[in-house]
Design brief:
Largest sheet: 8 strands, mixed
Strand content: 5-15%
Structural class: alpha+beta
Length: 507
């Protein structure tokens, strides 16, 4: 008994009491309305024999008992796996629960139709015992009422089951065959709002023509007004439910799109529909997953080749070959890395290099440069490719000075060389494997200057030709030195190094 009350308290805390009250209320109101219509608005003397205190009242009680008991038992039997899944989600087959939940509105409608069928059979037989014409009127009224009730039941069940549907479809969406298409919902709504009232009026007119009713046609006014009023009420309710079933997910998609525009890439919408709307919801979520995967690829790709190169590769189709660009190249190489590796563990070497290059990457990116590649304990930075950069030499020279300052406190020391000039920038390699790089005299010059910088105070060098291409402000922060012949060159190259920092430079 204690377990029963515990289960009952749990059930009361779910949405099922509201679901049951809504479905039951709709059917009871429809049944009472149908009986009152026949009893008070149909001008047939035989109707009086089915008074509320006689057969009609007894039939109503029988119908209510059958509808509540039989409908409740069947519904509980069919929906029990769903209740058990809600109670213990891990103990049931998700595919079975998914299909059952998505078919709940249809299953509920079938149950309602079956219960109404029993009620219609009972009341028709009772009326037939009184008069065959009365039986036909009762049958027609009950059938039209049953149709409208079934449609409203489906629309109400479809809406009330949405939170549960969102739960079962959260991880996987099958297809659009789990519910009737939207067009059929619209067709049924049209029948409810227009066809059924008009059919009722038409049947009243035909019955009057064949002398089913006593009196004049004017005595049917009340019945026609009642049919029209009922049609407007049920039509409004049905249309409102259909509109909400279409508009609500569209509003949710619109809100989700606005969140995506604001940069919220983890945006998803709940899938609670098994029709075309569900396909649209699932498609949006799939699109967002694709965008996140694309962004993840871009981020990972950017870590290896640089954000600018990755962006350019995603926007364009990379092809082998290159183009001539005027760039500035910064080359940085660690001093004494071999001896450092001998005196330290591999883990310590890797940690020191990571700390070193973390500073290098930050400074280069801050000055609008691109880390083109890492070569062991060295790095090559390019200013002006693949994205064009105005005054590339000034940015590269400023980056060199900042590296001199920011690397001073680290354990590893490095020589830095900067050179500007024309290079060929593009994709080099084979058809199946290539990389973006720069080739030219500026690259070689920066590497040679780096070798000299390792034995130069300050350990940062550039050449006079590069310095002349920088702006005046940057030129004032460098001082010219002697001319030397760089390895592999047949001419003299005048060197330059940063001047010593002053208070003006620091603030």
């Amino acid at each position: 008994m204690e377990r029963f009350w515990r289960e009952l308290r749990w059930l009361w805390g779910t949405s099922w009491p509201l679901y049951a009250a809504t479905v039951l209320g709709t059917n009871v109101i429809s049944a009472i309305g149908s009986m009152l219509f026949v009893r008070y608005l149909i001008p047939m003397p035989e109707v009086l024999e089915l008074g509320l205190g006689g057969q009609l009242g007894a039939i109503g009680v029988i119908y209510a008992v059958v509808a509540v008991v039989l409908g409740g038992v069947v519904t509980l039997y069919l929906f029990r796996p769903v209740l058990e899944w809600q109670r213990h989600p891990d103990g049931h087959d998700p595919n079975m629960v998914r299909h059952l939940v998505m078919r709940l509105p249809v299953a509920q409608t079938i149950i309602v139709v079956a219960v109404w069928g029993i009620g219609i059979a009972i009341v028709t037989v009772a009326a037939w015992r009184v008069d065959i014409q009365l039986a036909s009127v009762v049958l027609a009224t009950a059938l039209l009422t049953a149709f409208v009730t079934a449609v409203l039941t489906y629309l109400q069940a479809e809406r009330l089951v949405r939170p549960l549907a969102a739960s079962v479809l959260a991880r996987r969406f099958e297809d659009s065959t789990l519910q009737p298409p939207i067009k059929w919902q619209l067709y049924l709504t049209w029948f409810t709002t227009s066809a059924v009232p008009m059919v009722g009026v038409l049947l009243l007119t035909i019955a009057q023509r064949y002398d089913y009713f006593t009196g004049t046609v004017g005595e049917l006014t009340s019945a026609i007004v009642a049919l029209t009023t009922a049609g407007m009420v049920t039509g409004f309710v049905g249309t409102a439910l259909v509109i909400m079933s279409v508009v609500d997910p569209i509003k949710e998609l619109q809100a989700a799109i606005n969140r995506v525009r604001r940069g919220e890439q983890n945006t998803l919408v709940d899938i609670y529909d098994g029709s075309e709307i569900g396909v649209l919801q699932a498609g949006f979520n799939e699109m967002m997953r694709g965008l996140r995967d694309r962004q993840r690829v871009r981020d990972i790709f950017g870590h290896y080749v640089g954000a600018e190169v990755a962006q350019k590769a995603l926007e364009e189709v990379p092809e082998l070959g290159g183009e001539e660009r005027k760039v500035a190249v910064l080359f940085i190489d660690v001093v004494g890395s071999t001896s450092y590796a001998v005196d330290h563990t591999p883990e310590e070497v890797v940690a020191a290099l990571n700390d070193f290059f973390d500073v290098v990457v930050d400074v280069v990116h801050r000055n609008k440069g691109v880390i083109n590649k890492f070569q062991g304990d060295a790095a090559l930075a390019v200013f002006g490719a693949p994205v064009s950069l105005h005054d590339a030499a000034s940015h590269a020279l400023q980056a060199a000075r900042e590296l001199q300052r920011d690397l001073a406190g680290l354990e590893l020391k490095a020589g830095i060389g900067v050179a500007a000039g024309h290079v060929v920038a593009g994709h080099v390699g084979g058809a199946d494997r290539f990389e973006y790089t720069v080739i030219g005299d500026a690259v070689n010059g920066a590497a040679r200057l780096t070798d000299l910088a390792k034995d130069t105070p300050g350990m940062v060098l550039t050449n006079a030709a590069t310095l002349r291409t920088a702006n005046e402000v940057e030129q004032q922060r460098w001082t010219l030195m002697k001319s030397v012949e760089l390895r592999g060159r047949g001419k003299m190259t005048q060197l330059a190094r940063p001047v010593r920092s002053t208070l003006a430079d620091r603030y």
